[in-house]
Amino acid sequence: MKLATYKDSSRDGQLVVVSRDLSTAHYATGIASKLQQVLDDWNFMSPQLQDLYEALNQGKARHAFPFEPSRCMAPLPRAYQWADGSAYINHVELVRKARNAEVPESFYTDPLMYQGGSDDFIGPCDDVVVASEDFGIDFEAEIAVVTADVPMGATPEQALEGVRLVMLANDVSLRNLIPDELAKGFGFFQSKPATAFSPVAVTLDEVGDAWDKGRLHMTLQSTWNGRKVGMCEAGPEMTFNFGQLIAHICKTRNVRAGSIVGSGTVSNKDWSHGYSCIAEKRAIETIEDGKPKTEFMKFGDTIRIEAKGKDGLSVFGAIDQKIAPTVAHSV
Amino acid sequence: MKLATYKDSSRDGQLVVVSRDLSTAHYATGIASKLQQVLDDWNFMSPQLQDLYEALNQGKARHAFPFEPSRCMAPLPRAYQWADGSAYINHVELVRKARNAEVPESFYTDPLMYQGGSDDFIGPCDDVVVASEDFGIDFEAEIAVVTADVPMGATPEQALEGVRLVMLANDVSLRNLIPDELAKGFGFFQSKPATAFSPVAVTLDEVGDAWDKGRLHMTLQSTWNGRKVGMCEAGPEMTFNFGQLIAHICKTRNVRAGSIVGSGTVSNKDWSHGYSCIAEKRAIETIEDGKPKTEFMKFGDTIRIEAKGKDGLSVFGAIDQKIAPTVAHSV
Asked: How far apart, in whole angstroms, are the C-alpha atoms of residue A116 and residue A195?
């Protein structure tokens, strides 16, 4: 099934079930009002939502209405965890090669992950609000999953059983803030503003055999200012699968229901696939010409991130955002 | 007022109001069942809780019962954000001096903060469960605040207005996992297991003039295996106040209600105050004798963290935990 969260001026919005073709939706009222509730009590609530989903797909849901992605918040407008991996080692290799740094041997066996802020996600069509273009605004097209409870010490195989939903993410990064921040030694902080997610999060049965061994075998399309810049294959080159990423978190603590785990920038060795973040394009330019040529995003720029099924239909709906300056306001 | 969360087998527990002297408590049923609800709608709900609190203090609350800290979860058993600072620069200086590293000049003007996991906090009397003593188990006694909504771009002065509650934290650290993890460049992850918080979180009026300019002027007592090892002054040497820490987060994003912000290990230049984490004791030993002597915690060790008011009474109740190994379980 496909689930979304509609804006209603509340912090967590209203849970809606969305039809497979993303044409219609139906409030989940009577079952659950918020997605987190469903994740907290999945075995009880998800079959009820599935029934509604099937009725909706058959055109039998009584109060269906046209689905509008622009009315969506992130499927989880706020979450108890957002842990993002860097699971495509090719991305790490490119970025490091551009600055003449080696990739440590351990990076091929031990996932690189960072803990992100999760109190204020933005919707798929919300503006990316940034104080200054000088921050080096970049998009990052990623795959993300939402988990069940996974206990401390879980193996990657056990952790993989904890994947409830899959969606897309735009893990916006402020590139020019990163060097100084990472030099401080405690990881990303100000360089990672609010993350955006796709209009719908879907259960694994929706993607069929595209979900294989903890990887999503789909093409992630990134379109920057109307120009398709990335057609990256998300499956085969994902060095660590989602089971391994979740198990990485579980080494020293429990992962609780509703945690969101990201793949990191989707990246392919074959440069003809394009790029899922501008930093990678700039790394390639640096490797080829000694310096980057492509500039980061400007106010007014747009970024669209989407993945389509074998039938050519959008699976998660599109993240479709504009970069915008902060508006002065009185507190 | 003083607020706590009682265990009831649910994920978020039951909100209780606790009397000033921590002797009695009363369910907040009828007002709110969860602390996050109150933070989401503070102006409406907090006056009602305050009324109940006053009745409780006067012995007039009808269904009061004896308060038992052992029945507490963390005041927020899970939160949308846990951002921890390292606001006592003396702690940073000591740790760096022990390994012959300089403290960068920027550390005196730009707070060091890391994003922590917030999906699975532990209660004040819950065991600290760790897979292996080899991880280098350490406590970290800290002050923490719970925030209101604070918008992106807020100044430290504006951010300070967003402090709703104050409490104590034991930010457990796995010291032997830290060097390899920080070397990867993305900050703490596996080295920071579940954090524990004090039995009660209190509004600022409860600490009176001990709260001054965003700092809590109280003595933080740390007792390890029954021996008082730390009597550290939390106020005067806090390099960055809580307004500055919250504003640091707000530089590039909004901070939403219910975010928890920590001070980092409380630390004093005068070593006679003792220590709020073992790593600091070991740093002092290394500076004095060339190598650390004190070992990290073992299974069965206990740690008690508390702060007392001028009247000698415990303000937040005590964090009082035992270190325990993970128990093998079938998933």
From this structure: 9
Residues 6+ away with beta carbon under 8 Å from A118: A78, A79, A80, A81, A82, A260, B80, B81, B118
Reported as a single tens digit per residue, the pLDDT across B148-207 is 999 999 999 999 999 999 999 999 999 999 999 988 888 999 999 999 999 999 999 999
C-alpha to C-alpha distance for B121 and B319, rounded to whole angstroms: 13
CA B103 to chain centre: 25
Nearest to B331 among A113, A151, A191 (CB): A151
The shortest C-alpha distance from B313 to chain A (Å) reads 33
**How far is it, in rounded angstroms, from Cα B253 to Cα B251?**
6
The helix/strand count (H/E) of chain B reads as 7, 21
Place of tokens 């060091």: B112
Distance from CA of A123 to the nearest CA of B (A): 14
Contact A152 B78 (CB under 8 A): no
Q: What are phi and psi of A64, to 5 degrees?
A: -70, 150
Answer whether residue A329 shows pLDDT above 80: no
Q: How far apart are CA A166 and CA A147, in angstroms?
A: 9
Shortest alpha-carbon distance between residue A244 and chain B (Å): 14
Cβ–Cβ gap A79/B78 under 8 Å = no
B170 in Cβ contact with B141 (< 8 Å): yes
> Do the Cβ atoms of B329 and A151 come within 8 Å?
yes
Asked if A106's CB is within 8 angstroms of B180's CB, the reply is yes
Q: Which of residues 165-194 of B touch A (CB under 8 A)?
A: 174, 177, 180, 182-194
Sequence-distant (≥ 6) Cβ neighbours of residue B78 within 8 angstroms: A80, A256, B11, B12, B118, B119, B120, B121
Side chain identity, residue B166: V
pTM value is: 0.97
Bridge partners of B82, per DSSP, are B116, B260
Residue B38 CB partners (closer than 8 Å, separation 6+): B3, B15, B28, B31, B32, B45, B46, B49
Give yes or no for A106 touching B (CB within 8 A).
yes
- Inter-helix orientation angle A89-98/A278-289, to 10°: 50
Candidates B203, B213, B200; CA nearest to B245 is B213
| Backbone angle region of A88, left / alpha / beta, with phi > 0 → left and psi within -120 to 50 → alpha | beta
List, as ranges, residues 7-26 from B with C-beta within 8 Å of A. Answer: 11
| ipTM surpasses 0.95 | yes
The residue of chain B nearest to residue A106, with distances taken between CA atoms, is B184
Cα angle for residues A186, B279, B175 (degrees, 5° grid): 55
| Contact (Cβ atoms closer than 8 angstroms) between residue A76 and residue A260 | yes
B117 reaches A (C-beta below 8 A): yes
Which residues does chain A have within 8 Å of residue B188's beta carbon, measured at their own beta carbons? 115, 186-187
B:19-58 residues touching chain A, CB 8 A cutoff: 40
List the structure tokens of B325: 């190994």
Q: Could you tell me which residues come within 8 angstroms of residue B290 by beta carbon, excluding any fewer than 6 positions away?
A: none
B255 and B147 Cβ atoms separated by less than 8 Å: yes
Q: Is A132 helix (H, G, I), strand (E, B) or coil?
A: coil
Q: How many CB pairs under 8 A join A and B?
A: 162
- Reported as a single tens digit per residue, the pLDDT across B56-75 is 999 999 999 999 999 999 99
Residue B109 CB partners (closer than 8 Å, separation 6+): none
Q: Which residues lie below 8 Å from residue A112, measured CB to CB, with a gap of 6+?
A: A85, A86, A92, A264, B184, B185, B186
Amino acid at site A288: E
